[in-house]
Structure formats: C-alpha cells, structure tokens
Amino acid sequence: MVGGASLSRAMAAHPQAFPQDMVDIMRAGEATGTLVDVLASLTGSIERRDAVRRHLVSAMTYPGLLVLMAIGTVAMIVGVLVPALAPLFEGTGQQPPFAIRTAAALGAPVDAEGVLPGRRCPHLRDDCLQRRRHLGEGRQGSAVLVRQHECDQA
C-alpha cells in the first residue's frame, strides 16, 4: 500500500489471512467508491461469524463431556465391576446374566493384555484368577475372596 497499490491487492498478497471472497468484496468496494460501507459490512459479517463459532463450540462442550463420561463409565464397568462379579457365578453352576457376559466378553482382550490400571499382571488374567482361587479363602457361602494375590499388588 505504501507503493500506491490498492487495499484489495495488498490483501490478496496474504491469502492465509484474507479469504478470496473478502478480497473480491474489497475490490468491488474500491471500484464503486463504497469502500467505507464495504468495510463496515465485512466487519459485521466477521463478528457474526465469530459469534456463531463461539456459540457452536460452547454448545458442543456439554455433549462432548457427556460422551466422555459415558465412555469412562462403561470402561469402569468392564474393567472393575465385571471382574469383581464374575467369581460370584462360578461356583453356582448358573450362567452369569447377559449384561455381565457381554461386558466380560468386551473386556476380555483388554484385561488379558493387562492394560487396565490396577490390573497389571505378568500372567494372563485367567491365570491370576486361578491362583487367587487356590490361595484365597472365601466368606461363608460366597465366592468373595479375602486374601490378595501378587497380581493385584503389581
């Protein structure tokens, strides 16, 4: 602009800062002599676009948090609750409820690898459960184990 170039030409030299449609509108305003009105219109348009963007981001924050909480809840159920409930059904001869079987099936690959926090074990998870059954003592009439195995301490 110092060398006498138009504002639209200076804006066109920086495409990362000024979109092509904005440069074209400025060029039209320069050609018709209504540059002040065009600048006011573009300013209002940019402010509205930024307001809509901020509104959309704030509107999507709550649903995003809900989805994260739901994923965390399912992970806790599969990783903590199902392994704790599974031994209760082993000695009874009954099959666990469908929800527990399904959650156990979903958590089996993760649990077998020892990826879940608090479940790190050098052995496969089934091996740890077998050792726990042999080492632990259950309460009267239940499969709840009292003594801990070294896999739970790792």
Automatic annotation (TrEMBL):
It is a multi-pass membrane protein. The chain crosses the membrane at residues 62-86. Keywords: Cell membrane, Membrane, Transmembrane, Transmembrane helix. GO terms for cellular component: plasma membrane. InterPro entries: GspF/PilC, T2SS_GspF_dom, T2SS_GspF_sf. Its main location: membrane. It is found in: Cell membrane. Belongs to the GSP F family. This is Type II secretion system protein GspF domain-containing protein.
